[in-house]
Q: What sequence folds into this?
């Protein structure tokens, strides 16, 4: 209504102005001339210009065409960088709300495994994401694990200050720490059912997380080299989950007692237009919790990771990745445990991928023992929100020189769900 | 021996990496990073020799499934202008923009261009969108660059972005855009002339990427091989499509980009006698489709060949 009134007012003023001019020009004798003081005329002119500007702004606000724009059936570009809503819900100023659920079925020949031969709802992850201020983003992920009778817990809840200064992002809250190539990933983004043994035994059952601060600095390289330094200081990081396999040796993870610090340098460079090589080095240091029979000391985690990706036509992609981790605990009875994994994944179409994983790992609390496994993994991607994965594993672990497992994993989600660069 | 080998290898890798860190990529006045080769080409035509343009997606990649690469972050960190498709097609750009921490090109900044602004959107959902609808885009079909006349709006958005980041070059960019528009109008007459004998004819595509194109040239989409966007074809859907093609009075052409699985398309073609043609859906999608104009030359020629053969 306001727009219509303004347009009408503009038209009246325009017509009146034109009539006035015509009358002045058409009557040189001055008989019927209306004399308008120059100041008043200038004021009217200024008022008209103001009204025209206001009309243009209102037109833009309601999406009407502006003069000078291309004549394409009423569709016009706007000159200003209007933020366009992206993602479901954002147009309504709602946060992005999502739920990702996982169920796993497992067949195993290891009779000590009380989780074998069952299908379990392993996790439901509720994600709430949105901006709370220009360039300040809030992410919260609440997880529930019905299979373990665990109550809901905050997996991550943090603020990201984007572009705090050039190349710098700042994080505060509880989150996965930047250690290794895959620790930042949520488990539904993995390309396997379970993380490699070395990560489970030496880093964390699932992902190493903590409460604290982190800063991410993108080094100002001049070439196409990507180099990002991540530094963080955290509390937490102990073995958050107890084993449900009491008779099977499992690693303690990083087993930081409380405070720990992390540093990671992640570099990457394109090898060709369609391929990329990544090299990363990670370090974490903190007071260690007690290991079996060992007093407390300091724990150090060191990691090196290498990733190669080649992208073909459509959605085809080859990924090769290797990661080596070492955990050292100082103290009266210090110990060092290490391990590595090699992983390859080939995605021919967007509907399916095939992977092969070999992993080998020692245990922090018993470095003289080790386990290894080889897994063949097939993933059927039905849609962006739903996939099914089959994983066959042959391995050996202390007390069982050879076992076989067959995993079937369902992952489904609803609602917009995004993560940082993975 | 092993230790020495390790030290030598480590030193070589470190030196190579350090060399890359400080190597210069060559000076360019305005660095533009575009989401797709099509937007990159239009940016190049408007920006002329005063811009260097890089496309994150490569020709013949499925734009819904781009995996951002870390080196793309470096490019956006140095960029003066970022041009994205919008309409939720390139949501992967958000992860790159966030990681790049470049306030000049963040959403709403002068160097941020959403090329979809002002586009008259087609297939905007009018009912609740759920997973049952397939991988549907809530703001409408995002393949709008496949209507060549939308090049006018895309180029206008890019022009405004370039003028914001380099006002001194405004006249130069205006002249380039005018040349682009002149070329587009001239080419448009050529494409319309070639397709005019086939008005009303129907095509079948793998993915629902062509509503803008068929609307512009008065063609029709009989159906898609995907039963719903992003959902793989089922035997029953393919059988139903075969029956519909057979029921058509005029022969139907099956056409889509080379990167989509072609097994179902070839089966349908064999059982119905329909012509199957591969057409590019982005600049660089086939040899010779080097820019926005030659892209449509190849699309139009491919369809004309398909229609004429039947």
A:
């Amino acid at each position: 209504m306001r727009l219509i009134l303004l347009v009408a007012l503009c038209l009246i003023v325009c017509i009146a102005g034109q009539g006035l001019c015509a009358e002045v020009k058409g009557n040189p004798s001055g008989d019927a001339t209306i004399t308008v003081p120059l100041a008043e005329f200038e004021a009217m002119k200024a008022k008209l210009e103001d009204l025209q500007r206001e009309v243009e702004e209102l037109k833009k606000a309601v999406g009407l065409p502006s003069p000078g724009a291309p004549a394409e059936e009423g569709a016009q570009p706007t000159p200003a960088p209007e933020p366009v809503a992206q993602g479901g819900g954002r147009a309504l100023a709602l946060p992005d709300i999502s739920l990702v659920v996982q169920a796993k079925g497992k067949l195993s020949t290891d009779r000590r495994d009380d989780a074998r031969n069952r299908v379990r709802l392993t996790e439901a992850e509720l994600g709430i994401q949105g901006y709370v201020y220009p360039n300040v983003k809030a992410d919260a992920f609440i997880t529930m694990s019905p299979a373990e009778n665990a109550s809901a817990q905050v997996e991550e809840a943090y603020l990201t200050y984007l572009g705090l200064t050039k190349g710098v992002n700042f994080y505060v809250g509880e989150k996965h720490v930047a250690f290794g190539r895959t620790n930042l990933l949520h488990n539904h983004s993995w390309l396997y059912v379970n993380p490699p043994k070395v990560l489970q035994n030496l880093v964390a059952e699932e992902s190493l997380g903590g409460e604290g601060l982190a800063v991410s600095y993108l080094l100002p390289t001049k070439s196409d080299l990507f180099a990002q330094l991540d530094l963080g200081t955290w509390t937490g990081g102990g073995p958050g989950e107890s084993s449900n396999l009491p008779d099977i040796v499992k690693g303690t993870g990083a087993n930081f007692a409380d405070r720990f610090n992390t540093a990671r340098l992640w570099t990457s460079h394109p090898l060709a237009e369609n391929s990329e090589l990544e090299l990363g080095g990670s370090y974490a240091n903190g007071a260690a919790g007690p290991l079996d029979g060992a007093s407390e000391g300091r724990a150090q985690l060191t990691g090196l990771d290498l990733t190669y990706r080649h992208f073909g036509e459509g959605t085809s992609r080859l990924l090769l990745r290797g990661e080596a981790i070492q955990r050292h605990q100082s103290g009266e009875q210090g110990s060092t445990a290490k391990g590595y994994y090699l992983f390859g994944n080939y995605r021919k179409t967007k509907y399916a991928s095939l992977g092969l994983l070999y992993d080998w790992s020692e245990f922090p609390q018993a470095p003289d023992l080790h386990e290894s496994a080889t897994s063949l993994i097939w993933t059927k991607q039905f849609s962006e929100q739903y996939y099914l994965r089959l994983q066959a594993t042959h391995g050996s672990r202390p007390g069982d020189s050879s076992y076989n497992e067959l995993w079937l994993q369902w992952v489904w989600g609803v609602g917009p769900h995004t993560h940082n660069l993975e | 021996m092993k230790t020495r080998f390790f030290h030598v290898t480590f030193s070589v890798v470190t030196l190579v990496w350090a060399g890359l860190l400080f190597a210069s990529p060559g000076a360019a006045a305005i660095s533009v990073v575009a989401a797709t080769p099509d937007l990159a080409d239009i940016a190049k035509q408007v920006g002329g020799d005063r811009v260097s343009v890089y496309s994150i997606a490569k020709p013949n990649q499925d734009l819904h499934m781009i995996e951002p690469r870390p080196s793309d972050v470096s490019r956006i960190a140095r960029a003066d202008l970022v041009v994205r498709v919008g309409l939720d097609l390139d949501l992967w750009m958000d992860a790159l923009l966030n990681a790049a921490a470049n306030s000049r090109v963040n959403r709403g900044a002068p160097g941020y261009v959403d090329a979809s602004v002002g586009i008259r959107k087609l297939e905007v959902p009018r009912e609740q969108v759920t997973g049952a609808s397939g991988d549907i885009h809530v703001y409408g079909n995002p393949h709008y660059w496949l209507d060549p006349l939308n090049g006018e709006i895309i180029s206008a958005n890019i022009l405004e972005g370039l003028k914001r980041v380099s006002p001194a070059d405004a006249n130069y960019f205006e002249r380039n855009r005018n040349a682009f528009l002149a070329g587009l109008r001239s080419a448009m007459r050529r494409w319309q002339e070639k397709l005019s004998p086939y008005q009303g004819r129907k095509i079948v595509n793998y993915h629902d990427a062509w509503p803008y194109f068929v609307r512009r040239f008065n063609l029709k989409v009989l159906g898609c091989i995907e039963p719903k966007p992003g959902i793989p074809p089922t035997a029953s859907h393919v059988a139903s499509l075969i029956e519909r093609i057979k029921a058509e009075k005029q022969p139907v052409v099956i056409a889509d980009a080379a990167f989509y699985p072609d097994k179902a398309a070839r089966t349908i073609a064999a059982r119905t006698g329909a012509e199957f043609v591969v057409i590019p859906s982005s600049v660089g999608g086939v040899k010779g489709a080097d820019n926005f104009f030659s892209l449509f030359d190849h699309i139009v020629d491919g369809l004309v060949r398909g229609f004429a053969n039947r």
User: Anything to note?
Assistant: The domain at 192-308 of chain B is CATH 3.40.50.1980 (Rossmann fold). The mean pLDDT of chain B is 88. Chain B touches chain A through 72 residues (CB under 8 Å). The longest helix of chain B spans residues 170-195.
